[in-house]
Amino acid sequence: MIIYWLTGAVLGVIIIIWYLRRFQYHSVPGESQDHAGHDKLAAPEEKHIACPLVYNGSELHFSDKVLDHVLTKHFSFYNHLLDIDKERFLTRLRKFIATKVFVIHDGKGYREMPILISASAVQLTFGLKKYLLSHFHIIQIFPEAFVGLEPFRILIGNVTGNTINIAWKQFLEGYKNKYELQNVGLHEMAHALYYQNFETSLYVDKEFRDSFQKFNSIGDKIYHVEKILTIGLYSEYAIKDFQEFWAESIEIYFKSPDRLQLHYPELYNALCDILNQDPLNYPHHLFSQD
Ligand SMILES: [Zn+2]
Questions:
Q1: Closest of 256, 220, 252 to residue 239, by C-alpha
Q2: What's the pTM value of the predicted model, to 2 decimals?
Q3: How far, in Å, from the CA of 19 to the mean position of ligand 1?
Q4: Which residues, chain by chain, have CB under 5 Å from ion ligand 1?
Q5: Where residue 5 falls among pLDDT bands split at 50, 70, 90?
Q6: Are 115 and 93 in contact (CB under 8 A)?
Q7: Which residues pair with 166 in a beta bridge?
Q8: Burial level of 186, CB count in 10 A (0-12/13-18/19+)?
Q9: CA dihedral in degrees (119, 122, 126, 130; nearest 10)?
Q10: Which partner for 62 in 56, 66, 117, 188 could form a disulfide, CB atoms 3.0-4.6 Å apart?
């Protein structure tokens, strides 16, 4: 019996060592040299990479100067903040990065990847007290659309288990293109925030859960109106599934708050209450400091 047990234990250790050796650990990713937009993808021959790059967020130690530089260049939400809120954003961003492991499925990792993807989570939760999305330890970054299994489908982002998966090309487009409502970063962070509060028991934010009832009641009416007569804010995908309706509402709320307020003022106000933010009235409606 003991021999069986020992053999099992030894086999277990061998499997763990083999699994860990599949990953290459790297310290700090460099700045992208692609000044045109940081969305340069791997050369075709580099596309099938056996070993992803793994960065432990607690070892990245980006300075405030680096974080400020990257955000100023690419993240308009940050550029619109008052100095006091910029400081708060940087503090939250540093803490968020330190709690995650970033797995990059590409030949080269850029520092913009962990910084900007984390920044989209900090943007969504900036008015909330609990902002670390602690249920999610791992953020996987794919150069572009990737294959999801069970069911088999092509994805640009999804949330599964303890992992948030994002396609980098589409992530950048979401922030660069001001005229499209899509933003896959905010979309997946919205799913993650919901999942953590309603599908897990740890890390629940009671205030968020309580105020979310407003979205359920007001959103549900609009969801059914949109099913009959869409006004072009939501995709067909969003009006088939209430969870997708929530995630797309978040995209519209940040990317085109004026249109959301114009067409669905009650929904806009409910999202302001739930997230404790007001994109149309900042800085007159300041964030409450914690
Ligand atoms: Zn979705």
A1: 220
A2: 0.83
A3: 30
A4: 244, 247
A5: low
A6: yes
A7: 141, 157
A8: buried
A9: -170
A10: 66
